[in-house]
Design a protein that fits this description.
It is found in: Membrane. 68% of the residues lie in helices and 2% in strands. The protein is mainly alpha-helical. The protein folds into 3 domains: 175 residues, MFS general substrate transporter like domains (Growth Hormone, Chain: A), CATH 1.20.1250; 80 residues, no CATH class; 236 residues, Up-down Bundle (Growth Hormone, Chain: A).
Length: 498
């Protein structure tokens, strides 16, 4: 509900408020990858959960302070931005560690059967599921914004105390290093041999297999510059080269890195998808804020629209999993393409088109109401429900399809990092909405984005996003075609080598 606070309480233009919301959401998404590396390599999931809970506590506390009558002017804004920064740390810290840490506590062995540990852990985290529903209904009924922000801060303090009450009984996995280090080592080793020529003899590559190699990779001819990482130098003894893993990598490690790089072009589709994802917490919400939210004698809390979208997201994820299992085919994993991604892009075209039609209707009502500039438009907020449900479905299908695809095309230990990289690219796309709004505003001469939403032409902007989504669909098919051709070329080369 940050958008409503910025426009209703801080009296910002809706475009300026959208900039702040998009930066906050984008940074929160981009930070996932670095935080995952930090967890795996250094601090572990338990301490990350403690850190994220503290971040939420202090973040909402700072937010409540910034909204209180005590502060005003520059001090209020400074405290507000500090609060958002701290909360973003809590967001990507908890999203990374909560699920994994929960599984560690409930799996067989270890502390299984300890009711005190399980009870304190479950109670300490149940608020993460119950709180959104209660908050969506109850908190909007509270008028002072600093009280709205203080309530989550208090809940986080309580959750922290309950969570720590079972700290001595929790099963903790020590950090054992990040698999992302393998990718770094391959790049470092290949860079250290830049002056060396390419080898045409695959027998000069380092093929050693270890106990950790469950799936030993064969050498492929693409991305040859990385082959230097596995190239055995004739000027040094092999034993001496093996001791320095940053100078000599195994072929399996090189091929794992290649599989990661081959999937990167597909992430370009996440940029435009991220722009569409950003609409739910910004422009869609501002539309809802200017519509009639009455449901009989009850005013519908606007956060419920976000919960409808979240329910659609979770439901579409489950349907996507069921469809993937039912339509599984016996083809090489590398040739499979994530069909859920084009489906989500097609749905995003319809979502933006529907949003444009609804906004056009809303603007016609504004015109017939003697050019209403401020205040509530006599049109039901339920007109926005289809676009919110579609947006949630798009998000769920896209996220799950990408995750399933990466599980099949990259090494298992690196798949989570690639999923988080895609989340980060979506975050960049969310922030790209700022630049797109700026460009469209300049091209339209400022007519599409004015002081209020009732004077603006968001319907035209939604049509622009619909066209961009069509381009995104063409980009997807182009990338997947090139990827399939690259795989077939490598397969033919391997057959010829045999």
């Amino acid at each position: 509900m940050l958008m409503l606070y910025l426009t209703n309480e801080m009296k910002l233009k809706f475009t300026d408020a959208a900039v702040i919301v998009n930066v906050f959401a984008g940074v929160s998404a981009i930070g996932h990858l670095g935080m995952q590396f930090l967890v795996d390599a250094f601090i572990g999931h338990f301490w990350m959960l403690c850190l994220s809970t503290l971040a939420f506590t202090f973040g909402f506390g700072f937010l409540a302070t910034s909204a209180s009558p005590i502060l005003s002017g520059g001090g209020q804004k400074g405290m507000f931005y500090v609060a958002l920064t701290v909360i973003s740390v809590g967001i990507f810290g908890r999203s990374i560690s909560l699920g994994v840490f929960t599984e560690d506590q409930l799996e067989d062995g270890g502390n299984k059967g300890n009711p005190a540990m399980l009870t304190s852990f479950v109670i300490g985290n149940v608020g993460n599921f119950v709180f959104p529903l209660v908050a969506a209904i109850a908190i909007p009924q509270i008028s002072p914004w600093f009280v709205r922000f203080a309530i989550p801060a208090g809940c986080e303090v309580l959750a922290m105390l309950i969570f720590l009450s079972g700290a001595c009984s929790y099963k903790r996995e020590k950090p054992c290093g990040s698999p992302l280090t393998t990718v770094f080592r391959v790049f470092a080793a290949s860079a250290s041999k830049m002056s060396c020529g390419y080898t045409k003899n695959s027998t000069q590559l380092f093929y050693e297999q270890t106990e950790c190699d469950l799936d030993m990779k064969s050498h492929t001819s693409s991305l040859r510059f990385l082959d230097k990482a596995a190239m055995i130098l004739q000027t040094e003894p092999l034993e001496q080269q093996r001791k320095n893993r940053w100078r000599l990598c195994r072929v399996t490690e090189v091929e794992q890195t290649k599989s990661v790089i081959r999937t990167v072009p597909l992430f370009t589709t996440s940029l435009i998808s991220g722009i569409v994802f950003s609409l739910g917490n910004t422009f869609f919400l501002e539309q809802a804020n200017n519509l009639d939210s009455k449901f009989g004698s009850w005013n519908l809390p606007l956060p419920l629209l976000l919960l409808f979208s979240e329910a659609a997201r979770l439901g579409s994820r489950e349907l996507c999993v069921m469809a993937a299992k039912r339509h599984a085919i016996d083809t090489p994993k590398q040739t499979k393409t994530p069909y859920g991604i084009p489906v989500s892009i097609i749905l995003s075209i319809f979502c933006c088109a529907i949003a444009a039609h609804v906004e056009s209707r809303r603007l016609k009502v504004v015109t017939t109401t003697q050019g209403l500039v401020y205040g509530t438009v006599p049109m039901s907020v339920f007109w926005l429900l289809p676009q919110y449900v579609l947006l949630g479905s798009i998000t769920g299908i896209y996220e799950n399809s990408f995750a399933l695809y990466l599980e099949e095309t990259v090494p298992e230990e690196l798949s989570q990092y690639m999923v988080l990289l895609n989340v980060g690219v979506c975050g960049v796309g969310i922030m790209s909405n700022i630049a797109l709004v700026s460009v469209v505003g300049r091209v339209s001469g400022g007519k599409w984005f004015q002081d209020t939403i009732n004077k603006s032409r968001l319907d035209n902007y939604y049509w622009v996003l619909s066209v961009l989504s069509m381009f995104n669909l063409l980009l997807y098919f182009s990338v997947t075609y090139r990827y399939t051709m690259c795989y077939k070329k490598d397969a033919v080369a391997q057959e010829n080598d045999r």
